[in-house]
Amino acid sequence: MRDQYEIVTWDLEPGDVYAFHAMTVHGAGGNQRDDVRRRGYTVRYSGDDARYDTRVGTNKNLRSEAHADGDHLDSTRYPVVWSA
């Protein structure tokens, strides 16, 4: 089944960064070393039209008690970093 898709990969070194759309299917193999800890850091950016949403399937780790469904993402948890 994998041969039905275009699968791309990169050899990454410590400090390397890659960016992709959040809806891109992505993953990584397991850490092959016992002596090195693998770490990741995620940053999510959205457009100024993004709204808070708790429908089934949305990431529960991104929930905010300060937001109701439909609210703009413009708070300390979801700061505006640039506007036109």
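That was protein one. Protein two is written in the same sequence-then-structure order:
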Amino acid sequence: MTHNISIAIHGGAGTILRSTMTPALQLQYENGLQDALHAGYSILAAGGSSLDAVAAAVASLEDFALFNAGKGAVFNSAGKHEMDAAIMNGKTLEAGGVCGVNGIKNPVRLARAVMEHSGHVLLAGMGAEDFARLQGFEFEPDSYFYTEQRYKQWQEALLEGKVQLDHSDKKFGTVGAAALDKDGNLAAATSTGGMTNKKYGRIGDSPIPGAGTYANNKTCAISCTGHGELFIRSVVAYDISCLIEYKGLSLHDACKLVVYDKLVKIGGEGGLVAVDNQGNVSMPFNSEGMYRACRTKDRNEVKIYKD
């Protein structure tokens, strides 16, 4: 039996307003999303695995400097780039993640190496970097990750002495993907540079299986973007899977309950992309906007605002 191949991706959620977006910048964002969507969908269309598809889509988003992951990741309080990522295989429930890593061009690829070659699920900081060297990963200099926009954000945050959620106007600039392949296997991946001016080695929900990233062939694959602390406390990705598995909710209804009700009640702003084991896609968010795109047998869309 061949399943309906589907992929959904996001480039972050938050206060994304038409009024503050130039047509040229909007086009750049849309092109970045389209490129990543194509990178993932073309793998699925050629009969490839959902794991390869989400890894390719997220790596494409990491390479795109306007999103807060990989190149263009935000600055922490020490002026460095601390990146987190995770990937999960819905067929086996295997997962891999890295947090607080420096110099890794594509953290999602390192997360996959953790899943496939380390015997562990989550590696942090210098240990994760040591593992990366053993796996033959090349390291990029700080200059590779630098963008003028992120530097300005950091300087503003330093002056105001606060942690910023990616952009000064509250955008949660995580990137991620969820996909279903022709064999019925689900996968999800997420990557982020975290919060501008973050301190103390702060980690969000992105690299934590069940919180910001989750995939289970019985139910769905999910990648989240939002205020990480609240997504961790709500175990958002796993909660949606559980509502499908144990209560029999549809993907749409499970996502709706968590994003528009449970998260809102505790002040959790953000959104997610989800694909279920039938190839249905849901991309809910409770913020002003979310950079998002999906492609299925009958949908091919790139969106930013609430429309």
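The chain has one domain: 6-298. Keep this in mind for the problem set.
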